[in-house]
Amino acid sequence: MRVGWQHVRIMRILPIALLVGLSIAQSGQKPRQDFAALSSEANAARDTEHLSEAALLYQRALALRPAWQEGWWSLGMVQYVNGSYTLCARAFQRLTVLKPTNGAAYVMLGLCEFELDQDTQALRHIEQGETIGVPADAQLANVMRYHHGILLQRLGRFEGAGEVLKGLCVDGEQPKPLLSGLGMVALRMPDRHPPPEGSVAADIVARLGLAMSYEAQHKLEQARQIYAEVAQQYPDFPNVHVVYGRFLSEQHDVPAATQEFEQEIKNYPGNVIARLQIASNYYRVDSAAGISYAEEAVRLAPQYPFGHYVLGLLLVDAGEYTKAIPELETARRTFPHKVPQIYFSLGIAYSHVGRKEEAARARVMFVQLKKEQEQHAAAMEPSEETGKGNITPPQ
Protein backbone atom coordinates (compact mmCIF):
# COMPACT_ATOMS: atom_id res chain seq x y z
CA MET A 1 0.00 0.00 0.00
CA ARG A 2 1.34 3.43 -0.93
CA VAL A 3 1.31 5.69 2.08
CA GLY A 4 1.38 9.48 1.71
CA TRP A 5 3.07 12.06 3.92
CA GLN A 6 -0.24 13.87 4.23
CA HIS A 7 -1.20 11.83 7.28
CA VAL A 8 1.52 13.84 9.03
CA ARG A 9 2.13 11.45 11.91
CA ILE A 10 5.12 9.16 11.35
CA MET A 11 3.19 6.21 12.76
CA ARG A 12 0.90 6.53 9.75
CA ILE A 13 3.36 7.38 7.02
CA LEU A 14 6.33 5.19 7.80
CA PRO A 15 5.38 1.52 7.56
CA ILE A 16 7.29 -0.82 9.82
CA ALA A 17 9.29 -2.17 6.87
CA LEU A 18 10.69 1.31 6.38
CA LEU A 19 12.31 1.17 9.81
CA VAL A 20 14.93 -1.07 8.29
CA GLY A 21 15.20 0.86 5.02
CA LEU A 22 16.23 4.05 6.78
CA SER A 23 18.47 2.38 9.34
CA ILE A 24 22.23 2.69 9.56
CA ALA A 25 24.70 -0.14 9.09
CA GLN A 26 25.77 -1.94 12.20
CA SER A 27 29.05 -1.04 13.80
CA GLY A 28 30.88 -4.07 12.41
CA GLN A 29 31.87 -5.55 15.76
CA LYS A 30 31.91 -9.34 16.01
CA PRO A 31 28.46 -10.37 17.31
CA ARG A 32 27.97 -12.42 20.43
CA GLN A 33 25.42 -15.22 20.33
CA ASP A 34 23.21 -13.69 23.02
CA PHE A 35 23.28 -10.33 21.25
CA ALA A 36 22.60 -11.97 17.91
CA ALA A 37 19.58 -13.79 19.33
CA LEU A 38 18.18 -10.68 21.00
CA SER A 39 18.65 -8.46 17.97
CA SER A 40 17.05 -11.05 15.69
CA GLU A 41 14.08 -11.43 18.03
CA ALA A 42 13.75 -7.63 18.28
CA ASN A 43 13.71 -7.22 14.51
CA ALA A 44 11.15 -10.00 14.17
CA ALA A 45 8.89 -8.43 16.81
CA ARG A 46 9.21 -5.07 15.07
CA ASP A 47 8.41 -6.51 11.64
CA THR A 48 5.30 -8.23 12.97
CA GLU A 49 4.28 -5.01 14.76
CA HIS A 50 4.63 -6.39 18.29
CA LEU A 51 6.12 -3.04 19.20
CA SER A 52 6.14 -3.15 23.00
CA GLU A 53 7.92 -6.51 22.89
CA ALA A 54 10.32 -5.14 20.26
CA ALA A 55 11.19 -2.15 22.44
CA LEU A 56 12.11 -4.38 25.38
CA LEU A 57 14.23 -6.65 23.19
CA TYR A 58 16.05 -3.71 21.60
CA GLN A 59 16.80 -2.31 25.04
CA ARG A 60 18.26 -5.63 26.17
CA ALA A 61 20.35 -5.94 23.00
CA LEU A 62 21.61 -2.37 23.33
CA ALA A 63 22.64 -3.00 26.92
CA LEU A 64 25.01 -5.61 25.48
CA ARG A 65 26.13 -3.49 22.54
CA PRO A 66 25.61 0.25 23.21
CA ALA A 67 27.27 1.23 19.91
CA TRP A 68 24.69 -0.65 17.80
CA GLN A 69 23.45 2.17 15.58
CA GLU A 70 20.72 0.21 13.80
CA GLY A 71 19.36 -0.80 17.19
CA TRP A 72 19.09 2.79 18.42
CA TRP A 73 17.34 3.76 15.19
CA SER A 74 14.84 0.91 15.42
CA LEU A 75 14.24 1.46 19.13
CA GLY A 76 13.58 5.13 18.50
CA MET A 77 11.14 4.40 15.67
CA VAL A 78 9.29 1.80 17.72
CA GLN A 79 8.99 4.23 20.63
CA TYR A 80 7.74 6.93 18.28
CA VAL A 81 5.02 4.71 16.87
CA ASN A 82 4.10 3.73 20.44
CA GLY A 83 3.79 7.41 21.38
CA SER A 84 6.63 7.17 23.91
CA TYR A 85 8.20 10.42 22.74
CA THR A 86 10.52 11.00 25.68
CA LEU A 87 12.07 7.54 25.26
CA CYS A 88 12.09 8.03 21.50
CA ALA A 89 14.02 11.29 21.87
CA ARG A 90 16.59 9.62 24.10
CA ALA A 91 17.20 6.91 21.50
CA PHE A 92 17.72 9.36 18.67
CA GLN A 93 19.83 11.63 20.85
CA ARG A 94 22.11 8.65 21.48
CA LEU A 95 22.22 7.91 17.76
CA THR A 96 23.24 11.48 16.88
CA VAL A 97 26.19 11.09 19.24
CA LEU A 98 27.21 7.80 17.65
CA LYS A 99 26.64 9.07 14.10
CA PRO A 100 26.74 12.91 13.92
CA THR A 101 26.40 12.80 10.13
CA ASN A 102 23.06 10.97 10.23
CA GLY A 103 20.59 13.66 9.17
CA ALA A 104 17.56 11.37 9.55
CA ALA A 105 18.41 10.83 13.22
CA TYR A 106 18.40 14.59 13.88
CA VAL A 107 15.08 14.92 12.06
CA MET A 108 13.52 12.13 14.11
CA LEU A 109 14.87 13.69 17.29
CA GLY A 110 13.20 16.93 16.26
CA LEU A 111 9.91 15.15 15.51
CA CYS A 112 9.95 13.62 19.00
CA GLU A 113 10.58 17.06 20.49
CA PHE A 114 7.73 18.45 18.37
CA GLU A 115 5.37 15.98 20.04
CA LEU A 116 6.77 16.99 23.44
CA ASP A 117 6.02 20.69 22.66
CA GLN A 118 9.74 21.51 22.77
CA ASP A 119 9.44 23.74 19.74
CA THR A 120 12.75 25.59 19.83
CA GLN A 121 14.78 22.39 20.22
CA ALA A 122 12.66 20.61 17.63
CA LEU A 123 13.24 23.35 15.06
CA ARG A 124 16.98 23.35 15.70
CA HIS A 125 17.29 19.59 15.25
CA ILE A 126 15.03 19.41 12.20
CA GLU A 127 17.00 22.19 10.53
CA GLN A 128 20.23 20.44 11.46
CA GLY A 129 18.99 17.20 9.92
CA GLU A 130 17.77 19.04 6.83
CA THR A 131 21.19 20.64 6.41
CA ILE A 132 22.95 17.28 6.73
CA GLY A 133 20.40 15.66 4.45
CA VAL A 134 17.94 12.77 4.57
CA PRO A 135 17.43 10.01 1.97
CA ALA A 136 15.96 11.71 -1.09
CA ASP A 137 13.42 8.98 -1.76
CA ALA A 138 12.26 8.67 1.83
CA GLN A 139 8.79 9.75 2.88
CA LEU A 140 10.53 11.25 5.88
CA ALA A 141 11.65 14.21 3.73
CA ASN A 142 8.14 15.63 3.29
CA VAL A 143 7.22 14.92 6.88
CA MET A 144 10.33 16.86 7.87
CA ARG A 145 9.33 19.82 5.70
CA TYR A 146 5.79 19.91 7.04
CA HIS A 147 6.92 19.95 10.67
CA HIS A 148 9.64 22.48 9.82
CA GLY A 149 6.99 24.83 8.44
CA ILE A 150 4.64 24.37 11.40
CA LEU A 151 7.46 25.04 13.87
CA LEU A 152 8.35 28.25 12.06
CA GLN A 153 4.67 29.24 12.19
CA ARG A 154 4.44 28.52 15.92
CA LEU A 155 7.56 30.58 16.56
CA GLY A 156 6.23 33.54 14.57
CA ARG A 157 8.59 33.22 11.61
CA PHE A 158 5.74 33.47 9.14
CA GLU A 159 7.64 34.33 5.95
CA GLY A 160 9.87 31.29 6.26
CA ALA A 161 6.93 29.09 7.29
CA GLY A 162 4.96 30.13 4.24
CA GLU A 163 7.80 29.31 1.87
CA VAL A 164 8.31 25.87 3.41
CA LEU A 165 4.63 24.93 3.49
CA LYS A 166 3.85 26.27 0.02
CA GLY A 167 6.68 24.10 -1.25
CA LEU A 168 4.62 21.05 -0.24
CA CYS A 169 1.61 22.00 -2.35
CA VAL A 170 1.03 19.81 -5.37
CA ASP A 171 -1.81 19.53 -7.87
CA GLY A 172 -4.95 18.03 -6.44
CA GLU A 173 -6.53 18.17 -3.01
CA GLN A 174 -4.21 19.23 -0.21
CA PRO A 175 -4.30 17.56 3.23
CA LYS A 176 -6.25 19.46 5.87
CA PRO A 177 -3.29 19.95 8.27
CA LEU A 178 -1.29 21.60 5.49
CA LEU A 179 -4.16 23.94 4.59
CA SER A 180 -4.64 24.85 8.25
CA GLY A 181 -0.95 25.61 8.58
CA LEU A 182 -0.98 27.78 5.47
CA GLY A 183 -4.07 29.67 6.64
CA MET A 184 -2.56 30.36 10.05
CA VAL A 185 0.64 31.57 8.40
CA ALA A 186 -1.38 33.90 6.16
CA LEU A 187 -3.11 35.42 9.19
CA ARG A 188 0.15 35.50 11.17
CA MET A 189 -1.30 33.29 13.90
CA PRO A 190 1.39 31.67 16.09
CA ASP A 191 -1.18 29.42 17.79
CA ARG A 192 -0.23 25.84 18.51
CA HIS A 193 -3.55 24.47 17.24
CA PRO A 194 -5.97 25.54 14.49
CA PRO A 195 -9.20 27.33 15.51
CA PRO A 196 -12.08 25.12 16.73
CA GLU A 197 -14.11 23.37 14.05
CA GLY A 198 -17.23 25.28 13.08
CA SER A 199 -15.93 28.66 14.18
CA VAL A 200 -15.63 31.72 11.94
CA ALA A 201 -11.87 31.62 12.42
CA ALA A 202 -11.72 27.99 11.27
CA ASP A 203 -13.61 28.87 8.08
CA ILE A 204 -11.29 31.78 7.34
CA VAL A 205 -8.15 29.75 8.05
CA ALA A 206 -9.29 26.89 5.80
CA ARG A 207 -10.22 29.17 2.90
CA LEU A 208 -7.06 31.25 3.09
CA GLY A 209 -5.01 28.06 3.30
CA LEU A 210 -6.68 26.86 0.12
CA ALA A 211 -5.97 30.20 -1.57
CA MET A 212 -2.31 29.98 -0.59
CA SER A 213 -2.11 26.45 -1.99
CA TYR A 214 -3.58 27.71 -5.29
CA GLU A 215 -1.05 30.53 -5.26
CA ALA A 216 1.76 28.02 -4.77
CA GLN A 217 0.46 26.06 -7.77
CA HIS A 218 0.29 29.28 -9.84
CA LYS A 219 -3.51 29.10 -10.02
CA LEU A 220 -3.69 32.82 -9.43
CA GLU A 221 -7.27 33.49 -10.52
CA GLN A 222 -8.61 30.87 -8.11
CA ALA A 223 -6.44 32.29 -5.34
CA ARG A 224 -7.52 35.87 -6.02
CA GLN A 225 -11.19 34.93 -5.98
CA ILE A 226 -10.91 33.31 -2.55
CA TYR A 227 -8.86 36.16 -1.08
CA ALA A 228 -11.39 38.70 -2.34
CA GLU A 229 -14.38 36.71 -1.08
CA VAL A 230 -12.91 36.30 2.41
CA ALA A 231 -12.02 40.00 2.65
CA GLN A 232 -15.56 40.90 1.56
CA GLN A 233 -17.34 38.38 3.78
CA TYR A 234 -15.23 39.02 6.89
CA PRO A 235 -14.10 42.66 6.52
CA ASP A 236 -13.46 43.12 10.24
CA PHE A 237 -11.48 39.94 10.91
CA PRO A 238 -7.85 40.74 11.88
CA ASN A 239 -5.34 40.60 9.02
CA VAL A 240 -7.68 39.51 6.21
CA HIS A 241 -7.00 42.78 4.35
CA VAL A 242 -3.26 42.32 4.88
CA VAL A 243 -3.49 38.84 3.35
CA TYR A 244 -5.39 40.07 0.31
CA GLY A 245 -3.20 43.15 0.00
CA ARG A 246 -0.03 41.06 0.05
CA PHE A 247 -1.36 38.95 -2.80
CA LEU A 248 -2.31 42.07 -4.79
CA SER A 249 1.15 43.53 -4.20
CA GLU A 250 2.78 40.40 -5.55
CA GLN A 251 0.56 40.68 -8.62
CA HIS A 252 1.78 44.30 -9.01
CA ASP A 253 -1.67 45.78 -8.34
CA VAL A 254 -0.24 48.31 -5.92
CA PRO A 255 -3.19 50.77 -5.80
CA ALA A 256 -5.64 47.99 -4.90
CA ALA A 257 -3.15 46.52 -2.43
CA THR A 258 -2.72 49.88 -0.71
CA GLN A 259 -6.49 50.17 -0.31
CA GLU A 260 -6.54 46.83 1.48
CA PHE A 261 -3.67 47.81 3.77
CA GLU A 262 -5.27 51.17 4.56
CA GLN A 263 -8.53 49.40 5.43
CA GLU A 264 -6.64 47.12 7.83
CA ILE A 265 -5.08 50.16 9.51
CA LYS A 266 -8.52 51.76 9.78
CA ASN A 267 -9.88 48.61 11.43
CA TYR A 268 -6.81 48.05 13.61
CA PRO A 269 -4.72 51.22 14.07
CA GLY A 270 -1.95 49.27 15.73
CA ASN A 271 -1.32 46.98 12.78
CA VAL A 272 2.40 47.15 12.03
CA ILE A 273 2.49 44.76 9.07
CA ALA A 274 -0.02 46.78 7.02
CA ARG A 275 2.13 49.89 7.43
CA LEU A 276 5.29 48.05 6.45
CA GLN A 277 3.57 46.58 3.41
CA ILE A 278 2.61 50.06 2.23
CA ALA A 279 6.11 51.32 2.94
CA SER A 280 7.59 48.38 1.02
CA ASN A 281 5.39 49.12 -1.98
CA TYR A 282 6.77 52.65 -2.07
CA TYR A 283 10.39 51.45 -2.08
CA ARG A 284 12.22 52.65 -5.19
CA VAL A 285 8.94 54.04 -6.53
CA ASP A 286 8.51 56.94 -4.13
CA SER A 287 10.63 56.03 -1.12
CA ALA A 288 10.16 59.40 0.57
CA ALA A 289 6.39 58.80 0.64
CA GLY A 290 6.87 55.46 2.40
CA ILE A 291 9.05 56.77 5.21
CA SER A 292 6.17 57.97 7.42
CA TYR A 293 4.55 54.51 7.31
CA ALA A 294 7.80 52.79 8.26
CA GLU A 295 8.50 55.33 11.02
CA GLU A 296 5.09 54.69 12.52
CA ALA A 297 5.66 50.94 12.34
CA VAL A 298 8.98 51.31 14.17
CA ARG A 299 7.31 53.47 16.79
CA LEU A 300 4.60 50.85 17.33
CA ALA A 301 6.99 47.86 17.34
CA PRO A 302 10.56 48.98 18.08
CA GLN A 303 11.61 45.38 18.76
CA TYR A 304 10.68 44.20 15.25
CA PRO A 305 13.85 44.12 13.11
CA PHE A 306 12.02 44.14 9.79
CA GLY A 307 10.60 47.59 10.60
CA HIS A 308 14.08 49.05 11.07
CA TYR A 309 15.17 47.27 7.91
CA VAL A 310 12.39 48.77 5.79
CA LEU A 311 12.86 52.23 7.26
CA GLY A 312 16.61 52.09 6.69
CA LEU A 313 16.25 51.07 3.05
CA LEU A 314 13.70 53.82 2.38
CA LEU A 315 15.92 56.46 4.02
CA VAL A 316 18.94 55.41 1.95
CA ASP A 317 16.89 55.48 -1.23
CA ALA A 318 15.61 58.95 -0.28
CA GLY A 319 19.15 60.18 0.37
CA GLU A 320 18.76 60.57 4.16
CA TYR A 321 21.93 58.66 4.97
CA THR A 322 22.56 59.89 8.51
CA LYS A 323 19.07 58.85 9.61
CA ALA A 324 19.35 55.55 7.76
CA ILE A 325 22.50 54.30 9.50
CA PRO A 326 21.09 53.68 13.01
CA GLU A 327 18.03 51.94 11.54
CA LEU A 328 20.14 49.63 9.41
CA GLU A 329 22.55 48.97 12.26
CA THR A 330 19.62 48.03 14.49
CA ALA A 331 18.34 45.65 11.82
CA ARG A 332 21.81 44.16 11.37
CA ARG A 333 22.09 43.59 15.11
CA THR A 334 18.61 42.16 15.69
CA PHE A 335 18.00 39.94 12.67
CA PRO A 336 18.75 36.30 13.55
CA HIS A 337 21.04 36.02 10.51
CA LYS A 338 23.03 38.20 8.14
CA VAL A 339 20.99 39.89 5.39
CA PRO A 340 22.94 40.96 2.27
CA GLN A 341 20.81 44.02 1.48
CA ILE A 342 21.48 45.52 4.91
CA TYR A 343 25.23 45.49 4.23
CA PHE A 344 24.77 46.85 0.73
CA SER A 345 22.68 49.78 1.99
CA LEU A 346 25.03 50.39 4.92
CA GLY A 347 27.90 50.56 2.45
CA ILE A 348 26.10 53.32 0.55
CA ALA A 349 25.16 55.22 3.70
CA TYR A 350 28.61 54.96 5.31
CA SER A 351 30.22 56.15 2.09
CA HIS A 352 28.01 59.23 1.85
CA VAL A 353 28.78 60.34 5.41
CA GLY A 354 32.52 59.83 5.04
CA ARG A 355 32.92 56.56 6.96
CA LYS A 356 35.02 54.99 4.20
CA GLU A 357 36.53 52.05 6.06
CA GLU A 358 33.16 50.92 7.39
CA ALA A 359 31.71 51.32 3.90
CA ALA A 360 34.43 49.07 2.47
CA ARG A 361 33.86 46.40 5.11
CA ALA A 362 30.11 46.48 4.51
CA ARG A 363 30.60 46.03 0.77
CA VAL A 364 32.95 43.10 1.27
CA MET A 365 30.39 41.44 3.54
CA PHE A 366 27.64 42.10 1.00
CA VAL A 367 29.61 40.42 -1.80
CA GLN A 368 30.41 37.46 0.44
CA LEU A 369 26.81 36.99 1.53
CA LYS A 370 25.44 37.30 -1.99
CA LYS A 371 27.90 34.68 -3.18
CA GLU A 372 26.82 32.30 -0.41
CA GLN A 373 23.19 33.04 -1.18
CA GLU A 374 23.59 32.24 -4.85
CA GLN A 375 25.46 29.04 -4.06
CA HIS A 376 22.52 27.86 -1.96
CA ALA A 377 19.96 29.04 -4.56
CA ALA A 378 18.18 30.98 -1.83
CA ALA A 379 18.04 34.56 -3.05
CA MET A 380 15.83 36.53 -0.68
CA GLU A 381 16.37 40.23 -1.36
CA PRO A 382 16.24 42.43 -4.44
CA SER A 383 19.82 43.40 -5.20
CA GLU A 384 21.00 46.70 -6.63
CA GLU A 385 20.47 45.36 -10.15
CA THR A 386 16.82 44.46 -9.70
CA GLY A 387 15.46 47.96 -10.11
CA LYS A 388 12.18 48.96 -8.52
CA GLY A 389 10.28 46.49 -6.43
CA ASN A 390 8.91 45.56 -3.05
CA ILE A 391 11.04 44.78 -0.03
CA THR A 392 10.85 41.08 0.81
CA PRO A 393 11.07 40.00 4.45
CA PRO A 394 14.29 38.00 4.90
CA GLN A 395 13.60 34.35 5.70
Structural commentary:
α19 (about 320-335) packs antiparallel against α20. The chain has 3 domains: about 1-155, Serine Threonine Protein Phosphatase 5, Tetratricopeptide repeat (Alpha Horseshoe); about 155-270, Serine Threonine Protein Phosphatase 5, Tetratricopeptide repeat (Alpha Horseshoe); about 290-395, Tetratricopeptide repeat domain (Serine Threonine Protein Phosphatase 5, Tetratricopeptide repeat). About 70% of the residues lie in helices and about 0% in strands. It is built from 21 helices and no strands. The protein is mostly helical and about 400 residues long. The model is unreliable at about 1-15, about 15-20, about 25-30 and about 380-390 (pLDDT under 50).
The residue fraction in helices comes out at 55-70%
User: How would you state the average pLDDT, rounded?
Assistant: 88
State the low-pLDDT regions, or none.
1-13, 15-21, 23-32, 378-388
CATH architecture group name of the largest domain: Alpha Horseshoe
Over all CA atoms, what is the radius of gyration?
25 Å
Q: Which range does the strand content fall in? A: under 5%
Order of helices and strands: HHHHHHHHHHHHHHHHHHHHH
3D shape: globular
- Sheet with the most strands? none
Number of domains: 3
Examine the coordinates and then state which fold CATH places here, giving the name of the CATH topology of the largest domain.
Answer: Serine Threonine Protein Phosphatase 5, Tetratricopeptide repeat
**CATH H-level superfamily of the largest domain:** Tetratricopeptide repeat domain
Please identify the structural class as seen in this structure. Answer: mainly alpha
CATH class category name of the largest domain: Mainly Alpha
